[in-house]
User: Fold Aspartokinase from Lysinibacillus composti.
Amino acid sequence: MIVCKFGGTSVANAEQIKKVANIIKSNPQRRIVAVSAPGKRFGDDIKVTDLLIDLADAVLKNGNVHEKLNNVVNRYREITDELGLDYTICEVIAADLSERVSSDKSKVELFIDNIKASGEDNNAKLIAAYFNSIGLKAKYISPKDLLVVNDLPERTYALPEAYENLKFLADTKEIIVFPGFFGYTKEGILRTFDRGGSDITGSILAAAVKADLYENFTDVDSVFSANPKVINQPVEIREITYREMRELSYAGFSVFHDEALMPVFKLGIPVNIKNTNNPTAPGTRIVPTRTTTPGRPVTGISADNGFSILYVQKYLMNREIGFGRKLLQIIEEEYISFEHTPSGVDDISVIIRSNQLTPESEERIVKRVKEELHADDVHFNHGFSMISIVGEGMRNNTGLAARACAAISNTGANIEMINQGSSEVSLVFGVLQKYENQILRALYDEFFATVTTC
Amino acid sequence: MIVCKFGGTSVANAEQIKKVANIIKSNPQRRIVAVSAPGKRFGDDIKVTDLLIDLADAVLKNGNVHEKLNNVVNRYREITDELGLDYTICEVIAADLSERVSSDKSKVELFIDNIKASGEDNNAKLIAAYFNSIGLKAKYISPKDLLVVNDLPERTYALPEAYENLKFLADTKEIIVFPGFFGYTKEGILRTFDRGGSDITGSILAAAVKADLYENFTDVDSVFSANPKVINQPVEIREITYREMRELSYAGFSVFHDEALMPVFKLGIPVNIKNTNNPTAPGTRIVPTRTTTPGRPVTGISADNGFSILYVQKYLMNREIGFGRKLLQIIEEEYISFEHTPSGVDDISVIIRSNQLTPESEERIVKRVKEELHADDVHFNHGFSMISIVGEGMRNNTGLAARACAAISNTGANIEMINQGSSEVSLVFGVLQKYENQILRALYDEFFATVTTC
Assistant:
């Protein structure tokens, strides 16, 4: 059984929704469909989710609610028209929206969640109606009482019972159309997931029914081995392991939101990223362990900027049990997470995303490290990029680090930091931000564009 | 003013002590002399310190105390003979030893300390007597009431007042001969320093009198850039910074005990390692900042084995604030110190000296990391070496990492770990132990033996 998820551009208008129907029809294994709200149809278009945020705003500020509500309903009406459906579904959607607009506003955050989630919810109803109209037996299923999530104030996540509740979807005879992006607490309060929330819904459904495959339909043929904004027509990745994807996602290789794949990862369910507009293309498969032997040791190279380095030096540091731990504790007490901690004998650096720092927090950290850890030198440096070379094939490739270092040094850039863990799936270089694109190109040339000799 | 320290082989017999006198005479700046106990005169010889341990053992086990005591006194008698001194000093030494033998044995550790320290103490008396006999005005000074140390049970270190107490030595008209290796608590209890203790004494004296230079006399011309047991006639180091020396000492480059230079380091006093047997050779200078420009970016390469790697993997690890800190806390609670913590996005490795681990402590750590941190994979690997390339000149040498990686990969060995901090004074490679010597040779060839192009 396959669980499919269709992103916003894949369900943005009638033409796209027809493609979705054809995709579902073309493989009887595709039994469960998670859908997003209608996305952009062209560059300057406004997504339904943004229209809904506008609506919620109007309601809360006593603005022109009627107009804003019509903007939303009209998008669905247009789709309904073009799909040749009767307006019954639009009436259902309009009524649903009106009800949400007059719902409880005592918790603004929850009110906005409720309005926003209608985008996916009503699109799922519409798509189910369309499927049935063309003879594809389908059923809209609400997350209510099924996809149970935790209470406020923690970030939204599915409770273990959600997986139990959703199991039965494996045995229904109709195609299931399920709205992405939200669930309900045990008390019936609607809560939305973090960004990329429809990906999570699809992932939860795939895990609940123990799917053989989770197909994630979007608008690109596959994941690229490097940022196509910097590298001209980078190599497409056919197969990538979960670990490789995680290592790449670290440095700006935004395929999925971090947590989106957690449910399928835990069960080892493979994921296939595919293009709704070119469904016969193989796409990119994300797998627990590699099934094919790639022609090269490196799977992808990612780069991300906006990093700072906290440098701490103290004579005889390495004789002090607990020094590293105390340093990390001080950082933790500022609610700051860190990326790497390269160290010498008497110094340790902590690589931190700069957006977590303020002049005040930096000052507090420097002061505490000086006073509490009696460090000889403590200071922050800013403006670094991290460049990750990732590939399971790097594990036993002796010359790879040398090739990477040589490629970087040929650009004239200095290597500020090298980090290679014992996992050997990734090699991370810290460099000055201004060299980032130049180095990315040099590394891409070294590992993808040239004939490799190993 | 120069403070000199002479090690065991430099004061092992009359011939050596005459060399010491000549060294002192040849430069009027040399005003304070810290001395060790007489060391080995030839390969199979027994050091006085070991004879003293034998004596202490015989006293505690009711063995042949008379014979053991004579073994010690005879060594001094032999020296006295050859120096042409009268036996008064030997009587002083014999009486001192007898008094120590009958001293309080309620704390065995302190009793042994008291016997052992007589080696340095009596040698200082003897050397002062010799100096005076040849017209070099000298004065033995006991550490008592001057070099004040902390109380048990902590490791011995000098209290701040020791530096105050010893200041006056700068203004005495005689050459000061001061025994190395021990101090006294405020209550007058003798305590010895850790191994390399005479180095610490010299260092404390140099700091107390704010010396211009601390000369450390031993039996080699200088410090080598790599282990001469592995590399044939390695390049001698003329000048090395404190930081370089620290980075090298990490991996088996045993010049000084870690803490020995702390007092002079704090004041930025340069150290000169020199050879008693070839005092006109320049030796190796340890300096706060480099005064000469070396011809190569690398100052030294050291290698050390016996490392283990704790590998921890957890999906989404990098989203968890506090993960690294909690991991280090578990290790700290086993009283284990660590060397490096290279990390990927979802994994972190902790490099630990294997001699700190037992099967039981490994099991406890693995269990706690699994249970408390919910890690997906936790295990130990053993049998690693760490190889450090060190040099202040590496800071702005872009191609250096590439050259090092290439040299290692040409040996066929895999690089298990690379660690370069933001300090850039060192580059550390983790490799399998069996490749250690081969890699050390390859790196030495790369950075010292070949003509460098940068």
Remarks:
- Residues 151 and 185 of chain B are 6 Å apart (CA to CA).
- Chain B touches chain A through 72 residues (CB under 8 Å).
